[in-house]
Design goal:
Layout: E1 3-7, H1 13-22, E2 26-30, H2 34-42, E3 46-47, H3 51-55, E4 60-63, H4 68-82, E5 88-91, H5 97-109, E6 113-116, E7 119-120, H6 122-128, E8 131-136, H7 142-149, E9 153-160, H8 164-192, H9 197-204, H10 212-215, H11 239-256, H12 261-278, H13 287-290
Parallel strand pairs: 1-2, 1-4, 2-3, 4-5, 5-6, 8-9
Antiparallel strand pairs: 7-8
Helix pairs in contact: 1-2, 1-6, 4-5, 8-11, 8-12, 11-12
Bound molecules: nicotinamide-adenine-dinucleotide.
The site of nicotinamide-adenine-dinucleotide has 26 residues, from helix 4 and helix 6.
Length: about 300
């Protein structure tokens, strides 16, 4: 049995920590939100009163936090001062490549093994233990990191050195943001043309329009029962988070001198939906903007 400190038990971290507990590990859970800790305890984790208390005896520390500044602060203030010698440190948050590399450098200088291991798959996959992990770490550390991740994962791929996991993630989410907008525009157009949206789903999901945004995460309620569209766009991948990832992609593209015009359009459209009040809703709720409505209440 491995002792795992799990810091950040939100929409994603809650399900991921629960799967580590289900796999028989001792999970010491900490989040700033007491309700998130209570939920983790109900799922088999042990509550830690502070991040330091969770970290100090752990063999593995997993963080699942909102953004780069949270990860930098938690590593500098909590993880590095408290981790025990030999611990493996894994950050699963989606953050900027620069922060991931900066944290990796500090962690390595302190003598620990580290991986940036962001995930793809959404909250349903976090709960089911079927996330895709893209890992940036030293070659020699990958087998140990992969073994730790296994109870939360359907597939784990070594993307390359530190920061490569985050690079893979922002490129993937740029595809996701743009493809969701394309699917939403198509549903809004189908509706305006008098085509039954469910019939459109049936056809496009078996035609060349097929993609994850359509068939696994359909923004139109009905065809995919597990999609957030069936629960008023609550509890999935928030628009504000998608906007964060699209901004990360644009910042990275500007620094690397890459042309990403569709990614830029997607960022602009999600920024607009966010300003209209859609920030807390799942990113597939942008459908309502294309239908000429405000964000769902
Ligand atoms: P969330 O906001 O639901 O959860 C983040 C949690 O971190 C919150 O419970 C918050 O209280 C906690 N937190 C913040 N600062 C903390 C601190 N200093 N110490 C302890 N806890 C702290 O976000 P989420 O949807 O779970 O996403 C987490 C990360 O996963 C983000 O980087 C996001 O981009 C990424 N991600 C999300 C999804 C998704 O579908 N939601 C999918 C893939 C990746």
């Amino acid at each position: 049995m491995t002792k795992i400190a799990f810091i950040g038990l939100g929409n994603m971290g809650g399900g991921m920590a629960a799967n580590q507990a289900k796999a028989g590990h001792e999970v010491l859970a900490f989040d700033l939100a007491a309700a998130a800790v209570e939920k983790a305890v109900a799922a088999g984790c042990r509550a830690a009163g502070t991040a330091a208390a969770a970290i100090k005896d752990a063999d593995v520390v997993i963080t699942m936090l909102p953004a780069g500044q949270h990860v930098r602060a938690v590593y500098a203030g909590e993880v590095l001062p408290n981790a025990k010698a030999g611990a493996i440190l894994i950050d699963c948050s989606t953050i900027d490549v620069e922060s991931a590399r900066a944290v990796a450098a500090q962690v390595k200088a302190a003598g620990f093994r580290f991986a940036d291991a962001p995930v793809s798959g959404g909250t349903a996959a976090a709960e089911a233990g079927t996330l895709a992990f893209m890992v940036g770490c030293d070659d020699a550390d990958f087998p140990a990191v992969e073994a730790v991740i296994a109870p939360m994962s359907r597939v784990t791929i070594h993307a390359g050195a530190h920061g490569a996991g985050q690079a893979a993630k922002i490129c993937n989410n740029m595809v996701l943001g743009a493809s969701m907008i394309a699917v939403c525009e198509a549903f809004a157009l189908a509706e305006k043309l008098g085509l039954d949206p469910e019939r459109f789903f049936e056809i496009s999901s078996k035609s060349s329009g097929q993609c994850w945004s359509l068939t696994s995460y359909c923004p139109w309620p009905g065809p995919v029962p597990t999609a957030p569209s069936n629960r008023n766009y609550e509890g999935g991948f928030a628009t504000a988070m998608m906007l964060k990832d699209l901004k990360l992609a644009q910042e990275a593209a500007a620094k690397a001198g890459a042309a990403t015009p569709l990614g830029a359009q997607a960022e602009g459209l999600y920024a607009l939906f966010d300003r209209l009040g859609g920030g807390p809703k799942d990113f597939s709720a942008i459908l309502e903007m294309f239908r000429g409505n405000g964000p769902p209440a």
